[in-house]
Amino acid sequence: MPTKSKVRNMFDSIAGNYDALNHILSLDIDRIWRKKALKQIVDAPAPVQVLDLACGTGDFSIAIAKALAEGHVTGVDLSEGMLAVMREKVGKAGLNEMISIEEGDGENLRFPDNT
Fold first, then answer.
1. DSSP 45
2. 114 lies in a domain?
């Protein structure tokens, strides 16, 4: 099994091309699952607080924030390279107030369980 360091380095190295690769290699299935998941989140009572774990370049976090009338999204990812791309996209979308971005490990979250 790859170490976290190797996984982080791999995603850091492909961060700039990740979105295009993801769409091509998944045959756009990534877009389909995001739409399905988004429907469930949007139907939740407001205000919604969402943790997007392994948020990558932020496509899902951005889609959630755009769909919410009120609430907040926290995107957490192991790869600083992916988060750098996300920061740029969140800024361009004007969503800095609705989306927090954190480098972190999904096995050691700062959030209490079941929240």
1. P
2. no
- The residue written with tokens 């407001």 in the block is 46
Handedness of CA 60, 66, 113, 9 (dihedral sign): positive
Structural domain containing residue 90: 4-103
How many structural domains are present in the chain? 1
**Residue range 55-69: mean pLDDT, rounded:** 95
How many angstroms separate the Cα of 6 from the Cα of each of 3, 33, 62?
Answer: 5, 27, 27
Residue 9 has pLDDT above 80, yes or no: yes
| CB burial readout 24-63, b (16+ within 10 A) else e | eeeeeebeeeeeeebeebeeeeeebebbbeebbbbbbbbb
Model-level pTM? 0.90
Q: Encode pLDDT of 18-55 as tens digits.
A: 999 888 888 888 889 999 999 988 888 878 899 999 99
3 state DSSP class of 51: strand
